[in-house]
């Protein structure tokens, strides 16, 4: 009996070691595929040529709106990158704090880390109790614990971004009406913070509060632009900066900017409608294997129990997940459009 128990322990130990080697090989293969995709996935020549043609059209066009957009694009290209300000102050914790702030929620970095660790621990315990393989439980727990909060935060940021871009042209038009009625820019920004609901009013309220404590308008707007990292707000900041340096009719320039932003939002909606069928197909194809696996496991757990214990089935499952991930990345690139 002692020899049999030691043999069983050795078999379990060997199985755990083999599982660790399988996981390391799988992650190594995924890393190699990601590096190959980054190495060979350069910028598109068609997109670059279309951008040059559009720039040439803007340069020789007589339309005031197109001239304004061309001026904004040239100002953006001439600016120095501010990635250090966008990411916080260079540390990962500051970058995470900025990312949490973009959600519009009052979450802290400590709460985010606690939620990630709690999800990882629960998932790891469930997988370990079901399979008996510690390495598999820890790996799946770390992936799920780090992935779910990241996806949730990204969804909230995207939702707030959409709300901001939908109300931002209205805020610019309110600023235009205030300028045409004779109000100064600083006072009109305060009106926007009280009249426009949602994230637009919140961000302009923070801008006016910084100006009240002694910050200049350019610095207050630029700090908000670095934190938000939105092209629409960058256009607005550049317009204000150009007008303060060169002069001109700010109300007319902002009115053209509002028109450009509305057309940009309309183009995004058109692209979303045109790519909705492809996105639905990608969601169905990506979720169908997991739904079938859960349904079969719910009806007959013993039929799929080997995927948690048999090494050959574990290899097959990890390989299938790898190829599914590659397919999801390819489909995401196919339906991704730049504006």
How would you characterize this protein structure?
The structure is a single chain. This protein is mostly helical and 339 residues long. The protein has a domain at 64-265. Helices cover 83% and strands 0% of the residues. It is built from 14 helices and no strands. It has helices at residues 2-40, 45-59, 64-78, 83-86, 92-102, 109-131, 134-180, 185-195, 199-212, 217-228, 231-246, 250-274, 276-299, 311-334. Helix 1 packs parallel to helix 14, helix 7 packs antiparallel against helix 12 and helix 8 runs antiparallel to helix 9.
Keywords:
single chain, 339 residues
Q: What is this structure, in a nutshell?
A:
This protein is mainly α and 339 residues long. 83% of the residues lie in helices and 0% in strands. The protein has helices at residues 2-40, 45-59, 64-78, 83-86, 92-102, 109-131, 134-180, 185-195, 199-212, 217-228, 231-246, 250-274, 276-299, 311-334.
> Any idea what the radius of gyration is?
27 Å
Q: What oligomeric state do these chains adopt?
A: single chain
Which residue ranges are poorly predicted, with pLDDT under 50 across at least 5 consecutive positions?
39-43, 78-89
Q: What is the beta-strand fraction? A: under 5%
Largest sheet: none
Work out the number of β strands: 0
């Amino acid at each position: 009996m002692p020899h049999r128990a030691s043999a069983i322990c050795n078999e379990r130990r060997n199985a755990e070691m083999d599982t660790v080697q399988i996981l390391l090989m799988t992650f190594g293969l995924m890393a190699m595929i990601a590096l190959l995709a980054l190495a060979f996935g350069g910028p598109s020549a068609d997109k670059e040529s279309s951008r040059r043609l559009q720039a040439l059209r803007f340069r020789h066009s007589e339309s005031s709106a197109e001239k304004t957009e061309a001026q904004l694009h040239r100002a953006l290209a001439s600016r120095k990158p501010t990635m250090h300000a966008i990411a916080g102050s260079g540390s990962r914790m500051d970058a995470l704090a900025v990312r949490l702030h973009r959600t519009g929620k009052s979450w802290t970095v400590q709460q985010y880390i606690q939620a990630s660790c709690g999800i990882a621990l629960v998932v790891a315990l469930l997988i370990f109790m079901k399979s008996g393989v510690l390495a598999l439980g820890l790996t799946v727990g770390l992936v799920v614990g780090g992935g779910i909060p990241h996806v949730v935060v990204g969804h909230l940021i995207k939702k707030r971004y959409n709300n901001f871009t939908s109300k931002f042209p209205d805020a610019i038009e309110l600023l235009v009406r205030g300028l045409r009625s004779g109000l100064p820019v600083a006072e009109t920004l305060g009106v926007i913070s009280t009249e426009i609901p949602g994230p637009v009013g919140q961000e302009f309220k923070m801008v006016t509060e910084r100006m009240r404590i002694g910050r200049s308008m350019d610095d207050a707007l630029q700090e908000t632009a670095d934190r938000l990292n939105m092209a629409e707000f960058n256009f607005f900041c550049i317009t204000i900066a150009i007008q303060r340096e060169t002069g001109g009719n700010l109300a007319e320039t902002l009115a053209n900017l509002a028109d450009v932003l509305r057309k940009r939002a309309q183009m995004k909606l058109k692209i979303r409608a045109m790519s909705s069928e492809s996105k639905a197909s990608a969601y169905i194809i990506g979720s169908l294997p997991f739904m079938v696996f859960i349904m079969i496991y719910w009806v007959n757990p013993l039929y799929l129990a080997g995927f948690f214990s048999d090494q050959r089935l574990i290899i097959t499952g990890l390989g299938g997940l790898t190829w599914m991930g590659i397919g999801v990345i390819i489909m995401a690139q196919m339906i991704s459009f730049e504006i």
